[in-house]
Specification:
Number of strands: 9
CATH superfamily of the largest domain: Vaccinia Virus protein VP39
Order of helices and strands: HHEHEHHHHHEHEHEHEHEHHEHHE
Helix content: 40-55%
Oligomer: single chain
Number of helices: 16
Low-confidence stretches: none
Largest sheet: 7 strands, mixed
Distance between the termini: 54 Å
Number of domains: 2
CATH class of the largest domain: Alpha Beta
Structural class: alpha/beta
Length: 371
């Protein structure tokens, strides 16, 4: 029954010529049961198990989301339970904050060294004038520094610093002192090595501890690049309160974040890639920000994440022979699915990448946008 219903839905929603264009192949009919009863979680797991294949995975996801309006997010037990759980408890509480570090960022630095650019920047590149991934990431880091109006001798806080790529760049190129915080022990260890000899301090610290660690107004600028997706709606006000507490009244705060549609955890990504991750909506960001900061600038270059993710996949795929023995084929399919389905979502313009420049009291005379 599930196979018949699934085939009917598939053929009605995705014409056969489109299935051929994306080289969509069903290898096991159990994929239909998984899709109908478990939604995105079942669909992703079916791909990991080899039940279906698709040569152009990013194009396929972009098509079904943009052209057909499908999301596979219908009410299923996994999605309902995750939605209820996220309402009842704080899934990004201090006790749970390090889960994403252990289960995603600590999986192995070898994955990230081969997948990312030489600076190991694990966020969207800026491709407006870039020819390759390394250039796109350098341009993004410089764009952030210019938006913050960094000057030698200033103290900068990087919330969610990764392996210290921004900290190292800002310290070398702009002469600032940087404190980077992360909840990944692997990132702390490698970040300290990569930033050795520079006025950079990488610390294992949750953002909620900032007011206890630093006096009010300690930092001239604050930046958060690709970390806000791990904060969670129950913590947005606390997050912005803590950032403002350690920022000078005349300082600037740059928030670089993916922006989504629903603010519901996505079951497959939650289980396999980013535990407890939630994409904020524009409305929720504004609600949390507007009584704490002035929004000086908003810049959407989400289409660039499609290019970034595809470049990461190409690097990962090219390096797979070196990684295969350690990680195994199922990990390869999982990681491929993660990178390329996310690329498809950005290509469909269903999710976006924003950079917001915020000031505590408003820039006198106005803020000049940098692009």
């Amino acid at each position: 029954m599930f196979a018949s219903i699934g085939k009917l839905i598939l053929n009605k929603t995705i014409p056969e010529e489109k299935q051929e264009e994306f080289s969509l192949r069903i290898n096991n009919s159990r994929v239909y049961r998984q899709l109908l009863t478990r939604g995105t979680l079942g669909f992703g797991e079916s791909y990991m198990n080899g039940d279906w294949d698709c040569n152009d995975l990013a194009g396929f996801i972009a098509y079904i989301r943009q052209e057909r309006g499908m999301s596979f997010t219908h009410l299923t037990p996994p999605s309902m339970w995750l939605a209820i759980k996220s309402k009842l408890i704080n899934m990004q509480s201090p006790r749970r904050a390090s889960m994403v570090g252990k289960r995603h960022y600590d999986i192995g630095n070898d994955i990230y060294k081969t997948m990312l650019d030489p600076r190991m920047v694990y966020t969207c590149g800026y491709w407006a004038h870039a020819k390759d991934l390394a250039q796109a990431q350098e341009h993004k880091l410089r764009l952030i520094c210019e938006k913050l109006h960094l000057k030698p001798g200033q103290k900068v806080l990087d919330i969610g610093c990764g392996w210290g790529s921004f900290a190292k760049f800002a310290a070398k190129e702009y002469g600032v002192e940087v404190v980077g915080i992360t909840v990944s022990e692997e990132q702390v260890d490698l970040g300290r090595k990569l930033c050795k000899g520079l006025p950079v301090e990488i610390k294992f610290l949750d953002y909620r501890a900032l007011p206890k660690e630093y006096p009010a107004g300690y930092f001239d600028a604050v930046v958060s690049i690709g970390m806000f997706e791990h904060v969670g709606p129950k913590n947005y006000e606390k997050y912005f309160d803590d950032a403002r507490a350690v920022l000078k009244p005349g300082g600037l705060f740059l928030l670089h974040t993916i922006v989504g549609e629903t603010e519901r955890p996505e079951p497959w990504l939650h289980r396999y890639i980013f535990p407890n991750g939630v994409l904020p909506s524009l409305q929720r960001i504004y609600n949390a920000v507007h009584t704490r900061f002035t929004v000086e600038d908003a810049h959407n270059f989400g289409a660039d994440y499609d290019k970034t993710l595809c470049a990461w996949y190409q690097n990962f795929d090219r390096s797979w022979p070196e990684l295969k023995e350690k990680y195994g084929d199922r990990f390869y399919r999982m990681w491929r699915y993660y990178l390329l389905t996310c690329a498809g979502m950005f290509r469909a313009r269903r999710i976006h990448l924003f950079q917001f420049v915020l000031s505590p009291t408003g820039v006198s005379g106005g803020y000049s946008s940098v692009r």
